[in-house]
Amino acid sequence: MTLLRIALTPGEPAGIGPDLIIQLAQTEHSAELVAIADPQLLQQRAEQLGLPLTIRLLDVAKAPQINAASEICVLPVELAQSCVAGELNISNAAYVLATLDAAIQGCMDNTFSAMVTAPVNKAVINDAGINFSGHTEYLADKTHTEQVVMMLATEGLRVALVTTHLPLLDVPKAITSAQVERITRILHRDLQQHFGLAQPKITVLGLNPHAGEGGHMGREEIDEIIPCMEKLVNEGMQLTGPLPADTAFTEKHLTQCDAVLAMYHDQGLPVLKYKGFGNAVNITLGLPIIRTSVDHGTALDLAGSGKADMGSLQTALNYAISMAQHRSPTLKEH
To answer: 311-326 vs 177-195: helix axis angle to the nearest 10?
Structure first.
């Protein structure tokens, strides 16, 4: 099997992203890890953490090679100003996006097999005058992808979302047959292509309590979700539901499915994070590239302290490697 080359973006330079990448570099991995970052930032943070770090600059003309312990390969992107752990600086907002741009371009031109992102601080990017709503939307825009799907995964559970960061008031009108169909098709396809599941089994949640109680607690299930499911089942998809969210996450149902499709953010993700926070991964489905991310924020108060837990970044890396190994060579045609 060809050795994979995986891009790592450290996110907000004042946060724990650089710390986590340095911690990750302390051991060998089954792919070449390339941090897209300012080498001086990584070296200074390693000294602050008291960890050894050898930096090897990326040479794309050479084949990928396994990083030695305490070594990280780096694609250099310079900070605008020097960084102090825990102290945000709007001058470095453009740097954060430049690291993402380099990772995206590298994935698009096959320099990298996947990208793994550490957390960013959305507020400081917007304070710098750059309109930024998040990694997912930025990646969709930069790769010209009309529809993406947020899926979080941990051991024994995958949860994808029909809607993401919407106020609850706006969710019902966003649950249309067309939207549920778009999301389900992307989820189904990427479970096949990235996870090696020939016939994925997907449990679909209802929107309302008791999945609408036959229309007595809402008609979104009857009018929107069920017609979509019937259409896709007739095409051969293995879908179950719509199930009430308060019983769908029991062992009886979870052992019978490969992923749960939730209608909104706080319907599915509290269960996922309760089960696996710190060892969960955020995966953006629907892109022409592979992107995984940590399930936590920048933790400015922990930056440079040595107390940051790299469990989620390790999980995100493991998923990225596994997805890249399963990846269909025809993915970029979609």
So the answer is: 80
CA 105, CA 123: separation in Å to the nearest integer?
25
Give the integer Cα–Cα distance in Å for 236 and 18: 45
- What pLDDT does 334 receive? 32
**What are residue 228's DSSP bridge partners?**
none
β-pairing, 238-243 vs 149-154, is unpaired
Give the E-state strand segments of the chain in sequence order: 5-9, 32-37, 54-57, 71-76, 114-117, 149-154, 157-161, 201-205, 238-243, 259-262, 281-285, 291-293
Radius of gyration of the chain (CA): 20
Six-digit token pair at 117? 């992102």
- pTM listed for this prediction: 0.91
Q: Give the C-alpha separation, 5 to 258, whole Å.
A: 28
Which of 288, 307, 291 has its CA nearest to residue 299?
307
Strand partners for 37: 76
Q: How confident is the model at residue 331 (pLDDT cuts 50, 70, 90)?
A: very low
For residue 215, what are its two tokens?
């229309």
CB 202 within 8 A of CB 258: yes
Strand-pairing partners, residue 114, are 6
What is the C-alpha separation between 259 and 186, in angstroms, rounded? 12
Looking at the predicted structure, is the pLDDT value of residue 59 above 70? Answer: yes
